[in-house]
What does this fold into?
Amino acid sequence: MEPAHGPGDALDRAVIFIGPPGAGKGTQAKELARLYGVPHLSSGDMFREHVSRGTPLGLKAKPIMDRGDLVPDAIVLEMIEDRIARPDCRHGFVIDGFPRTAAQAERLSELLEHHGMGKPVVIHFVIDRGLLMRRLTGRRMCSVGGEIYNIYDRPSKVPGRCDNDGGALIQRYDDSEEVIGPRLKAYDQQTAPLVAYYRRQSVLRDVDAAAGVEEVTRRVMKILRNAR
It folds into this structure.
């Protein structure tokens, strides 16, 4: 897809994606970042970077991550602040996977204001729960190259085998129905106050995430143009 914005048009803001696992946030975040030439920030990537570099923040986070515990807000926010202070974020950025709570959202708003970025645009990915379950439980990954298929919507030509390298297609443990159900329930409980917080700030826009990838991108771009 070609860029949908005019030449020289800058994002100049933070764009936050909120939505359940499997709603397509990561795909859309990468595409939007590409179209605008800004970074795509992921809290998971930031953790891994700090740990691999052995930074003070990474040294704090590593034992917590190794135990499988949630990294405290204070450490997460330090990593976020470190990242958005870098020069490549001066024209904006796209972030998914953060914030997860209203308290994190409040602190993030303070950081954005401190860096002169104003209010974010928050895009809420809305999708029918049945379709979401179909997407997640039908997802299969190539055990060799990591390509993603879906047995319902994007099957491989030969069942159980990757089209590219013939690798076996596997279902990840966290894509099983037994795991997905509790994950989605936890997401709903945790995220409802966050969505309500951003609605009160008048910065949240809903997007129908059930459409195809390019159509969702088009709708996201329209939201951003209207928000300018």
User: Anything to note?
Assistant: The longest strand covers residues 13-18.
